[in-house]
Design a protein that fits this description.
8-stranded mixed beta sheet, alpha/beta, 6-stranded mixed beta sheet, 14 strands, 10 helices
Amino acid sequence: MSRRTRFSQAAVAVSVIALAAVGCGKSSTDTSSDSKKSSSGYSGKGIGLAYDIGGKGDQSFNDAAFAGFQKAETEFKIGGRDIEPQDGESDADKVQRLEQLAKSGYNPVIGVGFVYAPAVKEVAAKYPKTTFGIIDDEQDKAANIADLVFHEEQSSYLAGVAAAKATKKNHIGFIGGVDIPLIHKFEAGFDQGAKSVNPSIKIESQYLTQTPQEGGFASPDKGKDAAAGQIEKGADVLYHAAGLSGQGVISEAASKKVWAIGVDSDQYAQSSLAKYKDWILGSALKNVGGAVYDLAKSVVDGKPLSGVVRGGLKSGGVGFADTNPKYKALTDVVAAVDKAKQDIIDGKVTVKTTQ
């Protein structure tokens, strides 16, 4: 039975932990020992997390999941194990990774990213007493699977409003990591938001690769080249939905002194991007960490979530980061974004998921 929940919005610091090779993929941490028994009856080894392409350290999607993983470990006093992906791996590798976690007693077991959909479906059927979560995909349907998805188009709409208000050339750009329906949602929301401010605004658009295996989410050099091309054409605000590749977009934007808009995490606050932060206008947030935390909480509480659990602006599942003082100083931009947010929450604006 499907349950919905408000995603946790507490900030969680992401620590750097040495990687060690283990099994299929690389295990970042393993803080479990024996199975733990809580007052609610939870008796698993803790939370199991399998990362998407780009792995931990992307300062975006995967790191957001790790933040929720850490928060759950700390607050519920449970163990945890998170495992890195391998380059060029197959679905069979993902199946082995999830099965390794489930067989070891981790509960819940979460695949970070839509690429885990086939593996989650297969392994969940073998371990019906374990709760599985998959982020960014809702095709897996089973009593022990929670599809953790988001209204990415809503936060992207706010990014589009911010970009259209901040541009000095009425010329902005979108860079997607991979040409797939999920990333089309980001572009659709961004374009609609920008055109709500200026219907005649010029918007550059580029996808780095056709498939994830080609590195669209894991190649900062590809992001940098795409950004350079859009800036050369005249764009002065760039929004990326490209995972680790977005670091290249941000670094190039900063070097050319034009605005960049980050994605998933508050990229202004990320330590590895500190040298570029003055040029990070804001970030379209997706509370992946909150989704991971809430699924772990539901399992520990003995009431595991299942079915589609979708986060939007109203629930706090998506949003727009405003931590850059330079953004806050642009009072007309802030006012426009705040109004757009309220209009979406109130139902006055419906954001498209396709163009």
